[in-house]
Amino acid sequence: MPKLPSFFDKPESAKTDNSRDHQGRVRTVPHQHDSWATYVYCKVELSHELLALHPYLKDAEMLPEQHISLSRPVYLRKYQLTPFTRSIKAALRDIQRFDVSFAQISHLTNDEKTRSFLTLEIGHGYNQLHKCMKFVDNVMREYHKPIFYDPPRFHASFAWSLKQSTIASIRIPPHVIEQIVSNVFSIDKVYVKMGNRLETVSLD
């Protein structure tokens, strides 16, 4: 089962860690000069769905923004940022906008086993996301970076906890899940986040 990477704020800006600043989270990649945390993803707007889920989340923390990753987090040098963005835009130039919907709720844990997540796994739209991912993988190979998980489990995380038992204990009623998986979301942009930089790739 592929697991979620541990990926927080831009490493080029924070040289000290205080667990109180990150709700107990621990940085698993130490700060390095000129190291830009980079990943590629799609956004989904789940504000309405989160209102329905919130009463059942107990001690889990809500995530403020939901996205569907198309890459692992990687680290680039500053001189690589512009050409990397150009490569991603070129790789996705023929991708048409498409719709996605979710199929189920799952529990996932990050690679370092420091956080566990509640996620919505993609059903409809999986093949289109997979196509995007393969193009992104090709760019990652050009930069000698790790490609995405195989097989990929495309998902949007919406809550997390430091304790796996907290996530595992959450029970969401079937009628709430059914309402969420019946919704359709449009994917018309891909985002490239590089430290404090954000580039947008518009799909046709």
TrEMBL record:
Keywords: Hydrolase, Lyase, Nuclease, Nucleus. Pfam families: HVSL. Residues 9-24 have a biased composition (Basic and acidic residues). Residues 1-28 are annotated as: Disordered. GO terms for cellular component: nucleus. GO terms for molecular function: 3'-5'-RNA exonuclease activity; lyase activity. One of its GO terms (biological process) is U6 snRNA 3'-end processing. The keyword Magnesium does not apply. This is U6 snRNA phosphodiesterase 1.
